[in-house]
Amino acid sequence: MASTTMSQHLAAIIPEKGSPLKIVHRPTPTPGPTELLIEVHSIACNPIDYYMRDHGFAVASYPAIPGSDISGIVIAAGSSVPAAAPKVGTRVTAFAHAFFTHGDPDYGAFQKKVLVPASSVCPLPDGISFNEGSILPMAVQTSMAAWYSAGLARGTKLTSADKKGMLVWGGSSSIGGVGIQQASRMGYVVYATASPHHHEYVKKLGASKVFDYKDINVVEKIVKSAKEDGITINLAYDAAGALQPILDILKAVKGDDVAKLASAVLLGSVTPTVEGIDIKFVSAPSDDAERDEWSQWLYWTWLKENLQTGEIVPSPSIKVVDGGLESANKALDELKGGVSGVKLVLEV
């Protein structure tokens, strides 16, 4: 844990496994050599947050603080933060490292001031609000980690002549929506699934065709469409937990190459083995040094540039849960109960 100053700030801690979040004042930490201290303005909620609260997932000890998605203002920087990192006073979006630090309370999002490795912080353009900025990091990092897991090279760029398709299952979710934007920019013909009332929205993100995932014939319809369009689909991104239908589609239209399926949903204790299909759980580089370099490229170059040009936009719609940090349990319970096409955000 980092050293602390004498000041304190408001935080929502997990006192013990399975316990509701508790609002406390805790010491404000001082950033380590390559860290930034961020004053948080908005926090976006993700399923992993209530998994950490309810089940102790990825938590090493208590008290712990969950949370990954934040936006705010840099208020302090470590002694060795690279010059390319956002400066003190900059409005930023950032990926808090609650997962990588196993719940270390200095690094979880659900508090007013949080430490973040400088490599996981990106400046926000003036046209993007704190609420919009808060929904970016998990979605961007998870989707980009999917391509890393699938072995895609940085800067992959296809043309229409390549006839390469990609399937994104769960296109109206935050991670699915950003995945569609990324895949479309790489030149893939993107097929996506979503509820019918989200179809037009998903198309605006860059999907060529959108299918109703509840349709009992959805597999047959996607296979038929791919064959009619003359494309092979040998890359899939599961943002919603639909392993079997995706496998059925890939087996039918993957062509001669080995297909890659990157799942953002935990695969369980036994990963299925399917001939000709490589199934991976989405993950960023596991080596600390490699992950730091990858994150610098992702946040300081790729995301920064694409936010400035408008090539990547925050998605989906935002629903603010009133009450700030005091409503953290309410927000996580609502997310756990199921939401569709919206991202729950706390303003702190």
UniProtKB/TrEMBL annotation:
GO molecular function: oxidoreductase activity, acting on NAD(P)H
Domain annotation Enoyl reductase (ER): ranges: 18-346
CDD domains: enoyl_reductase_like (cd08249)
SMART domains: PKS_ER
Keywords for the protein's UniProt record, in alphabetical order: Oxidoreductase
Pfam families, per database record: ADH_N
PANTHER family named in the record: ENOYL REDUCTASE (ER) DOMAIN-CONTAINING PROTEIN (PTHR45348:SF3), HYPOTHETICAL OXIDOREDUCTASE (EUROFUNG) (PTHR45348)
Family as reported in the entry's similarity comment: Belongs to the zinc-containing alcohol dehydrogenase family.
The protein's name: 4938e1ad-1b9f-415c-8fec-5fc7636135e0
Organism this protein belongs to: Sclerotinia trifoliorum
Lineage: Eukaryota, Fungi, Dikarya, Ascomycota, Pezizomycotina
